């Protein structure tokens, strides 16, 4: 039976038969795809907390850098002759509790959130301004001409990680 009618009959049957045989997925294919999907979900679930912690730490670091630069700008605006307790406290640059260097600015800038207000960092964080005569850093300079100012912000995340950012300037 190698005539043209037989071949036409087989060609007509074969597409229908192939369609019926391949109409859906097999149980093995479905099971394999479910296993691959679950593995991907587990990998994502394992990486997600690390990504959140890294994003929070990066956000705190950026906030600290901006705040430290802002504090240095405030000190620069105050001027070299006004880098003492009474002037800095009067200008609202430092907290009024500490009267000698290093000064704090935790409260004046809402660095730490209180019960009524929102702060930049969690409780336990601090902001410190240290002012020393530049002669102690660079002995070739004459004493009393310039000050070396360091602004340091230290924070503790809710998970217990500690971060620190410092910026320095000569004024």
Largest sheet: 4 strands, antiparallel
Overall morphology: elongated
Strand content: 15-25%
Instruction: Count helical runs.
Output: 4
Residue runs with pLDDT of under 50 for 5 or more positions = none
Q: What is the ordering of alpha helices and beta strands?
A: HHHEEHEE
Report the count of strand segments: 4
Number of domains: 1
Rg computed from alpha carbons, rounded to a whole number of angstroms: 34 Å
Q: Which class do the helix and strand fractions yield? A: alpha+beta
Kindly report the spatial arrangement of strands forming the biggest sheet.
1-2-3-4
Residue-averaged pLDDT: 81
The N- to C-terminal Cα distance equals 105 Å
Helicity, in percent?
A: 40-55%
Secondary-structure blueprint:
Blueprint: H1 4-21, H2 27-78, H3 85-90, E1 103-104, E2 126-133, H4 134-137, E3 147-156, E4 162-170
Antiparallel strand pairs: 1-2, 2-3, 3-4
Give structural notes.
This protein has 171 residues and is of the alpha+beta class. Helices cover 47% and strands 17% of the residues. A 4-stranded antiparallel sheet has the order 1-2-3-4. It contains 4 helices and 4 strands, in the order αααββαββ.
Question: What descriptive keywords fit this protein?
Answer:
elongated; 47% helix; 4-stranded antiparallel beta sheet; 4 strands; alpha+beta
Explain briefly what this protein structure is.
With 171 residues, the chain is α+β, with helices and mostly antiparallel strands.
